[in-house]
Design brief:
The structure is a homodimer.
Chain A: H1 3-10, E1 27-31, E2 34-44, H2 55-71, E3 75-85, H3 90-104, E4 108-114, E5 121-130, E6 146-149, H4 155-165, H5 172-175, H6 181-187, E7 193-196, H7 201-212, E8 215-218, H8 231-236, E9 243-247, E10 258-264, E11 271-273, E12 276-278
Parallel strand pairs in A: 3-4, 8-11
Antiparallel strand pairs in A: 1-2, 2-5, 3-5, 6-9, 6-10, 7-9, 8-10, 11-12
Helix pairs in contact in A: 2-3, 2-6
């Protein structure tokens, strides 16, 4: 059973309404008068980080990738639970964790610490409080919306290649990604649809179009990339944790962002890239680590 | 860095008040007028389950051990987030997950699915709603309280040995433990102190005494065990997920439970077993799997 089959089978179980059909970045639950946003992401050695990486960076990234899911919902972090497999350089791990929690002002709530052999596994659950309801989803894009992205894509890819090849270069974007929490909060009241780009712009735009049952047309020449000679790589590699969102046509984004396309009636494919239909998601994104599937 | 050192270092980070100093079964956070209880436990192949075990049982146990932490706080489950590493027999895993969620009436909220090599790792976050505040802690025992335990201890140990040795016998207590949710809810308004026995009665009683800054005296002859000839094993092996709690002297427990001791002023040691002081926790509990530390 691969990931797609596994998740499809999970959809047959008893799902919470707030699970959003297991098709969003995070779960959303109403508790009294509050709306909570919950997410859980794992990182596996050799899959989601290179064995030679600084464990302080691994801990930072574990926090940041989860907070990025809260950012995509416009949520303010309340706290985190850590699932930690003990191993080498745990002091560095705790330093990186400390830096991330301090940077984002997020306290530790608890978790679990286990021993293990083989590749290390970490899990993190982030709990946030919605700053705006309804909480933006992937599924809210509307015909005529403009499609935007924050930041510049491809920096994480270059950082990864620098680490892998042990060359000179800036690895920050890969090793210490930033969760766009402030941007997410500013966008939540305005965006029809929003998600973070964890698996690559094209794959994530494809998913947004599928969830919204519309088509998204992207003009690749408009996409801000770190290396125009590798534009396609920058649009598919992922790990940038920027925000992809749609706004009603004419609404000016309240945060720095670039318009890269528009939302159209559902056409022949969920995604159109420079007018060409992209029919299936294979090869559109996520190939972070050398042995990842 | 071992588990104790790691957790001690984590206590130096920014902790949420609801983290209870990382010394309780679960975190407790106030959200509006509600009180939420959150817990996260991992299970690692070869550490927390035997590689030959039915993956349906592994999934069940992953749910049950987390719900047991909610039970110890008297909380009603709201939902769970699953961190799943793909591997063999995932169809069986989903069947067991389905059975556990249906049995406890707990919906799936979301989570993460990853690929990995080597021993499999799973994580589960359970979110509950407190049925009574203040939420019972480990730290609330008072001098003069009576100490109680639900159920009969040692059944999980026998189940584990049956599985390990491939002999005939009932493995249910080890393979499909039950979370004492109803008992926890009934006890929450009355118990001064409460926790689940995941790591063995003596170790967990030691921890309750430490957290409450008192001594707990246990009369081993009163402890209900499945095999009186292996009384000490039954009191230290763990994995029984019964509830250990203290009530003011004279309060009759509203659920089936056995009085096994009493709470005393802090004496020479946190724990007294048949009048003998137990000064440190080494060897008191948790040796679930053959290669565990």
């Amino acid at each position: 059973m691969n990931e797609t089959e596994f998740i499809a089978t999970l959809r047959g179980l008893m799902l919470h309404d707030g699970a959003r059909g297991l098709a969003d970045d995070a779960a959303v639950i109403e508790i009294g008068a509050e709306t909570l946003v919950l997410t859980h992401d794992m990182m596996i050695e050799g899959r989601h980080y290179l064995p030679q990486q600084d464990m302080a960076d691994v801990a930072w990234k574990l926090v940041a990738v989860n907070l990025s899911d809260l950012a995509a919902k416009g949520a303010e972090p309340v706290g985190i639970l850590l699932g930690h497999m003990l191993g080498e350089n745990d002091s560095a791990f705790i330093e990186g964790l400390d830096e991330a929690l301090s940077h984002y002002g997020v306290p530790l709530l608890g978790g679990d610490t286990v021993a293990g052999d083989g590749p290390r596994a970490f899990g993190l659950t982030a709990i946030g409080r919605a700053s705006h309801t309804p909480v933006p989803s992937r599924a809210g894009a509307e015909i005529g919306d403009a499609v935007f992205v924050t930041g510049t894509l491809g920096a994480a890819m270059l950082g990864y290649e620098t680490l892998r090849d042990e060359t000179d270069g800036d690895t920050t974007a890969y090793a210490r990604p930033m969760a766009r929490l402030a941007e997410g909060r500013d966008l939540a009241p305005l965006a029809h649809s929003m998600m973070d780009i964890s698996d690559g712009l094209l794959l994530d735009a494809f998913r947004m179009a599928e969830a919204s049952e519309l088509s998204i047309a992207i003009d690749s020449g408009e996409v801000p990339v770190v290396d125009p000679d590798r534009r396609h790589d920058c649009m598919t590699w992922g790990d940038d944790y920027e925000l992809l969102f749609t706004l009603p046509d004419g609404t000016f984004p309240p945060v720095p962002a670039t318009r890269i396309g528009s939302v159209e009636p559902r056409g022949f494919a969920p995604l159109f890239l420079d007018g060409e239909p992209v029919i299936n998601a294979d090869g559109l994104g996520y190939r972070h680590a050398p042995d990842s599937e």
